[in-house]
Amino acid sequence: MGGMSLEASMYAQPTTSKGHATRSRLMACARAEAIRTSGRIEIAAVASAAGVVPSLVHRYFGSKAGLVSALVDDFFDRLQAEVLLVNLDDVGDWAARERRRLELGVRFHYEDPFAVVLYGQLAREATVARTEAIRISTVIKQAAAGIRQAQRSGELPREVDPEFAGAAMFGAMQRVMVEALRRKRRPSERSVVDVLWRQVAASVHLDLEATRRHAGR
Question: For the domain with range 6-67, which CATH number is right: 3.40.50, 1.10.10, 1.10.3470, 2.40.160?
């Protein structure tokens, strides 16, 4: 995916190693504060935790909205690095790779406490919606590119619309994870992957036998 949202790109980016370190510290403190408060972030609290004056937070992020946007960008950057762009060529064909990618995606969400915040309190903020829309658009394009490649190799049928299928795949993951994360007793990772894999298979017209085979059944 890569890149950053409009809000994050509007403000000062560090040009020195010290500046990068300061911005990283502010991000870490903001993320911790968001998790601690379930998304109720205040610049003064972030600055205090980082041991700096609030004006320094404004320097790098412009406003609370800019800071929140940067946190969302960071989440998607990590999702991309740890799940969406992981090279799984040695796993097998498209279906085997995507099943494995679902496993990585569910584990990523379960292990990252910021996911609960992002899909909870922060989901109500307009800044989050705008930033997510930009990042999700790129995710869908990436998924569509993978589907097209699988179509060229004969692994997926030609009649599948890559963009629609990519949107369905990521949309299903996001909404299923919202439901799973909100529960006090979370379903097992395997059960979540099984639900999502059925949605992926339907999106790209994989038959049920292929679905069972790649699910290891």
Answer: 1.10.10
Q: What's the pLDDT tens digit per position in 154-207? A: 999 999 999 999 999 999 999 999 999 999 999 999 999 999 999 999 999 997
Residue 112: phi and psi, rounded to 5, are -105, 105
Q: Contact at 8 Å (CB) between 168 and 203?
A: yes
Residues 52-78 as b/e (b if ≥16 CB within 10 A, e otherwise) read: beeebbbbbbbebbbbbbbbbbbbbee
C-alpha dihedral sign at 124, 125, 131, 134: positive
C-alpha count within 13 angstroms, C-beta hemisphere, residue 104: 18
Model confidence, pTM = 0.86
